[in-house]
Specification:
Helix content is about 20%, strand content about 35%. By secondary structure, the protein is α+β, with helices and mostly antiparallel strands. Among the domains are: about 120 residues, Methylamine Dehydrogenase, Chain H; about 260 residues, Alpha/Beta hydrolase fold, catalytic domain (Rossmann fold). Strand 19 and strand 20 form a beta hairpin. The longest helix is centred in the first third of the chain and has 29 residues. The chain is globular. The protein starts with a helix and ends with a helix. Belongs to the peptidase S9A family. It is found in: Cytoplasm, Cytosol. Pfam families: Peptidase_S9, Peptidase_S9_N. This is Prolyl endopeptidase.
């Protein structure tokens, strides 16, 4: 399924800068006028991380401190004692929280049983349109329940398909399929398999046939593409960093060699094949800047050629058609995406299309004579069809309920139809097709169920502190009466230029059926209204996201959607920053807060350069080590730093013991400090009848920072 560009556009960081001693990449003089570029393009993969960007920073040595004359330098013995003390404190805190959870969990046993039964019932309903398909001529490949199926294009909708293989047959029963790539001649298939307890995947290469043969297993692979029938390029991931590109062959003289290495810790490397399979692109991106190198698929053993050297603040992606490069770049004003057409080694370039203000480019796909762009504006999804011949544009507004889309893989750029799926948190994926010949949108006929047809979608705009209008998407049951008495679950993220996760979840549909109101606040810092929406909510603008969230919740209450005593706030990963900050500044707006693997200790985390993500994350949060103003600003909103004795809402936090992105120690300290502050306030005001909030931490031994299987999600 094609979602790569979407994640790239949302801010994955990557980078590239190694050239082997013998194969120096050549510079391709593309366009001198477009000096700044960055990023990459559409990729037919299903990235499992949806809560936070994948790229990491490098591990740097500890900072050196100068000592005044007479000052004592800590001895190694004292340092070791300090480390041991810290480890002991961590273990004691962890043990205390685990004991607390074991005491509390039985209270929810009956509720857990009821919810689990209801979710299983919803999961088994026949309203899912199935997995996205990969189409190769007459053949269609798709994955379901750990099995790869092959069907003929005419039979796929009739349910006639053969099993190619299952991951259980390969001996990987505890893993799930993350990405699939098929060689141009369909002789080989490369798949990445990932377990729930790690962010690193393995790549398995199979030789297809009556009985598939496992040719090779490559550990710690992030992305991979076929440059030719038997030549595979891939990137490796280590400590959340992806900086090396390798090439491996499978026929004749089998060999593997390093092709490319990125030196800048802020950049992360990914690879992608252009739609016409003429070039393989090596994309090196940070959160704000990118650089692209091209490998000619007709000569896959030649050195990569540079498209345009990285320029700070400029992102670009590259596609190819009819001996022209189509470059999607943020160069120029406004700093949103523009489509540029250029020739090789020529300075002339032509503007094909520019996004309107406050419009998000979600994804795009190239075909023979058309380019499809999926856009988001004021919460609505649009499909724009751009003629690559006449440069005319047709804009189609997609159904109001649609919040997420997933582009199906179209390996052949000559296809006359574009297939994709639309969904929302309460609408299961539904398949659509746009026909270039008929020039119309075709919706797959499915039998609707009452739970879904009774769900109402409302879009609102809240006025923030600086008068900026902030979009809100609201779902509730049409038959619900007295909405001000209904429970409200508010969702927020607001970081890295990534949209709130609004894909379908059975638990969201269950809440609607039980009378809940769901609200999604698209605050600044996220990417819902383009790149400027992200810039207005990162680094020294982080507080704008907090102001946006406050305005959204207050508007919901004002319009009669629930009230503070029935309102809960949910966030995951970096969304924990704004949720935790609101909990400190406006605890009276909510009664409960639910956090999943939350980032709640920004200041201390950004002060530790030995953590894998710190350097790369400076583009999002700033660098408090070198900028005192930045340090003070982070301290002004950091959830951990601003806990104080007051009446807090109840809090439930889930963390994963082996999470590589969110240090467990920081969450443990946050929970301890929050509980202490809440108890201190309660002890001072007990005579006033103030309640004592439940502050619960569940530490899961298994699981990781990424989305997991249905079974794991159900248990959670």
């Amino acid at each position: 399924c094609c979602v790569g560009l979407r994640h790239l556009l949302q801010g994955l960081s990557f980078g590239v800068k190694y050239y082997s001693k013998h194969n120096h990449p050549q510079t391709m003089c593309l366009y001198s006028k477009i000096k700044p570029p960055k990023c990459h393009i559409l990729d037919c993969s299903e990235t499992t991380c949806t809560h936070r960007t994948a790229p990491p920073g490098s591990i740097l040595p500890w900072r050196f401190f100068s000592c005044k004359k007479g000052a004592k330098v800590p001895s190694k013995r004292k340092q070791n004692t300090s480390i041991l003390t810290s480890d002991l404190l961590h273990k004691n805190l962890l043990k205390s929280e685990q004991e607390n959870w074991n005491d509390i969990a039985p209270i929810y046993k009956a509720m857990t049983k009821r919810i689990k039964e209801k979710l299983e019932e919803l999961h088994n309903m026949e309203f899912n349109s199935g997995s996205p398909r990969m189409r190769f001529g007459e053949n269609v490949y798709f994955e379901e329940n750990g099995c790869i199926f092959l069907s003929k294009a005419d039979d796929v909708d009739e349910g006639n398909a053969d099993i190619v293989f299952s991951i259980e047959d390969l001996g990987f029963s505890d893993a799930f399929i993350q990405r699939i790539r098929i060689s141009p001649d369909q002789r080989y298939m490369a798949i990445s398999l990932k377990s729930e307890n790690s962010e690193e995947a393995i790549c398995v290469i199979l030789k297809l046939g009556y009985i598939p043969v496992m040719e090779k297993v490559i550990p710690s692979v992030f992305s991979f593409e076929w440059a030719a029938n038997d030549v595979l390029y891939y990137t490796t991931q280590k400590n959340l960093k992806c900086q090396n590109v390798f090439m491996t062959t499978f026929t004749y003289q089998k060999h593997t060699k390093l092709v490319y290495t990125e030196q800048d810790a802020r950049f992360f490397v990914d690879i992608y094949c252009t739609k016409d399979r003429r070039f393989l692109t090596i994309n090196s991106n940070s959160k704000t800047t990118s650089e692209v190198w091209l490998v000619d698929c007709r000569q896959p053993f030649e050195s990569p050629a540079l498209v345009q050297a990285r320029t700070t603040g400029v992102i670009y992606h590259v596609e190819h058609r009819n001996d022209h490069l189509y470059i999607l770049t943020t160069h120029g004003e406004p700093a949103e995406y523009k489509a540029i057409l250029t020739d090789y080694c020529k300075e002339n370039w032509q503007l094909v299309y520019a996004l309107e203000k406050k419009t998000k480019l979600v994804d795009f796909e190239m075909f023979s004579n058309e380019c499809i762009m999926f856009l988001k504006n004021a919460g609505h999804l649009y499909l724009n069809v751009i003629s690559l011949v006449s440069h005319s544009v047709q804009s189609i507004k997609l159904p109001t309920w649609a919040c997420e889309f997933e582009l199906e893989s179209h390996p052949e750029h000559t296809s006359s139809t574009c297939y994709f799926q639309l969904s929302s948190p309460v609408h299961p994926p539904k398949r659509f097709a746009y026909s270039f010949k008929e020039n119309n949108l075709i919706e797959q006929a499915v039998q609707e169920v009452p739970i879904i047809t009774n769900c109402h979608t409302t879009r609102l705009l809240a006025k923030s502190k600086d008068e900026t209008l902030v979009p809100i998407t609201v779902f509730h049951n049409k038959n619900s009466k007295e909405l001000h008495r209904r429970p409200l679950l508010v969702h927020v993220y607001g970081a890295y230029g990534i949209d709130l996760n609004m894909s379908f979840k059975e638990e969201k549909l269950m809440l609607i059926e039980e009378g809940w109101i769901l609200a999604y606040c698209h605050v600044r810092g996220g990417g819902e209204q383009g790149l400027s929406w992200h810039r207005d909510g990162c680094q020294h603008n982080k507080l704008k996201g907090l102001h946006d969230l406050r305005a959204c919740i207050m508007l919901l209450h004002k319009l009669g959607f629930s009230q503070p005593k029935h309102t809960a706030l949910a966030a995951a990963s970096a969304g924990g920053v704004l949720a935790g900050a609101l909990c400190n500044t406006d605890p009276g707006l909510i009664r409960a807060m639910v956090l999943q693997a939350p980032f709640v200790d920004v200041l201390n985390t950004m002060m530790k350069t030995d953590l894998p993500l710190t350097i790369e994350e400076q583009e999002e949060w700033g660098n408090p080590l070198e900028d005192e103003r930045c340090m003070k600003y982070i301290k002004s909103y950091c959830p951990y730093q601003n806990i104080k004795p007051q009446c807090y809402p109840s809090v439930f936090i889930t963390v994963y013991e082996n999470d590589e992105r969110i240090p467990l120690t920081g969450v443990l300290k946050y929970v301890q400090k929050l509980r202490k502050a809440a108890l201190h306030h309660a002890s001072r005001t007990r005579e006033k009848g103030n309640w004592i909030p439940n502050i619960i931490l569940e530490v899961q031994a298994n699981g990781s920072h990424c989305d997991s299987s249905w079974e794991h999600s159900l248990n959670e």
